[in-house]
Amino acid sequence: MSPADDAAQKGAPVAPPRLRRVLDLAARRIESQIDSGSGWSGVENASAEGAFVIPAALSAEFEVARYERLGLGDGDVVLPVCPVSFRDFMLFEKHAIDAARGLARRFVPAGYRVGQLYETLTRRTFPAFRPNALWYRQPIYYMSNALTIVPSGMPVGFPTYSRALDFELELGVVLSVPLRDASVEEAAAAIGAVVVVNDFSARDVQLPEMRSGFGPQRSKHFLSSMSATAVSGAAVADRLDRLTATVSINGNTLAHTGTSDMRYSIAEAIAHVSRSEQLYPGELFATGTLPGGSGMELGRWLVPGDELRLEIDGIGVIEHLIR
């Protein structure tokens, strides 16, 4: 009896099958593997892999060459899906407010003190810490760089132009079918894969870029990362807003968080993007940072030598050594 069968028989929650992909440089290919509870095994036919509804949007040769440039070798686990685009939302009000406080605390200390005094006297959130009014009317997002997403496990370093590297724990979903003017139900059904996403950020560069009125650029596009595994959208569709998560550095758990209390559901956010805009299989959408899922909120900034671990239970893990 497999572990999954044993859990089902005992009435325990059954973990969904996981997908990962392994680099085979000699054959210039990437092997897909599935773990349904009995260990990893190769995918022998398209129908088995198709259960995850993850499209092959890019050629194998393109992906292999990309991973070679990253220094990966035979047998290394790569991205479970290589996305063709990356839209990052901001769906959690608590994160937005706490992150604004954390940014001000480090980079605008005088403004932070004013905000503290206001909140102490009024017992209300300082207006400058709240999201823009548009956030309350519709899902907002920015376009990041899908081609700088690296797999979990790679050592990563500070960009040369920043002294304030931060992490951001997020839930990500990948489309399996084209969408345009989709209903919320159609958007939900189009989610083919679910992953953990980490949106690395250069916070000292982000503040002046945001003040420019043109959104984040060098502060975000240099690097993001993804869990080594994915689960199918269908397997977790009923609990995307009820997942639990943790942030750990150097083996110490700094935050217990989760995906509850989103202003908009992931399906609502995708449906919004699809209005008069054609979306394609392989496009990645992330929720934005889970509350307490960034160092800026926690007051714990990354330093060289840190071992970062971000996990969303039942979905996957991201781990990096910070150089």
Secondary structure layout plus pairing:
Elements: H1 3-9, E1 18-24, E2 29-35, E3 40-42, H2 46-50, H3 60-69, E4 77-78, E5 85-89, H4 93-107, H5 109-122, E6 141-143, E7 149-151, E8 165-166, E9 169-175, H6 184-189, E10 191-198, E11 201-202, H7 203-211, E12 224-226, E13 230-232, H8 233-236, E14 244-249, E15 252-258, H9 266-273, E16 283-286, H10 295-298, E17 307-312, E18 316-321
Parallel strand pairs: 5-16, 7-12
Antiparallel strand pairs: 1-2, 1-4, 1-13, 2-3, 5-6, 8-11, 9-10, 9-16, 10-12, 10-13, 14-15, 14-17, 17-18
Helix pairs in contact: 4-5
Helix tally?
Answer: 10
Q: Could you tell me how far the N terminus lies from the C terminus, measured between alpha carbons in angstroms?
A: 43 Å
Shape: globular
Structural class by SSE content:
alpha+beta
Q: SSE order in H/E notation? A: HEEEHHEEHHEEEEHEEHEEHEEHEHEE
Mean pLDDT: 93
Radius of gyration of CA atoms, rounded to a whole number: 20 Å
Strand content: 25-35%
Let me know the number of strands.
18
Question: What characterizes the major β-sheet?
Answer: 12 strands, mixed
Helix content: 25-40%
Which segments are poorly predicted (pLDDT under 50) over 5 or more consecutive residues?
Answer: 45-50
